[in-house]
Amino acid sequence: MREALALAAEGAAQGEVPVGAVLVIGGQIVGRGFNCPISTHDPSAHAEMVAIRDAAQRLGNYRLLDSTLYVTLEPCSMCAGLIVHARIGRVVYGAREPKAGVAESRGRFFEQPFLNHRLPVEGGVLGEACGTLLSEFFRARRRKVPAPSTEVSLSVDAAEAPLPQGAEDSAGGA
Ligand SMILES: [Zn+2]
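# zinc ion complex -> structure
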């Protein structure tokens, strides 16, 4: 999770909502990613998506059995679907995402009976550190005077959204 946090901070330095993820198999990190939809012009570029793609490419396998995904924020519905498709073995996340998280906040996606793959999911690991990174990022962004010409995408995305403790804007994160 500390590696995922470091990746999240890397994203923050690039102006992206700081969420990081790593995929681990057999004690080795096989995939890394941080949330980067703005810089890549890719709305699917959440941390989990990037880390899982990275691992699948590296391993030459679209199924990532016996893997553990560490992500700093509770997964959204898109990433939860991906986690099941990729046959991830286990998910460990940090902060809760009250607006868009589907592990516990907006329902319990991973317990749905229609899923053909089951996995344990654990939240709250380094949750405070993961949440603080997000809330400090948004606080710093709100302090900035809006610059209409160049920062339109940022302000539309997340800068104006009120942020609950430890949460991120649902449009920008994992
Ligand atoms: Zn996501």
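# post-check
The pocket of zinc ion is lined by residues 46, 48, 75-76, 78-79, 174 (CB under 6 Å).
The helical segments are 2-13, 37-40, 47-59, 77-85, 127-143, 152-159.
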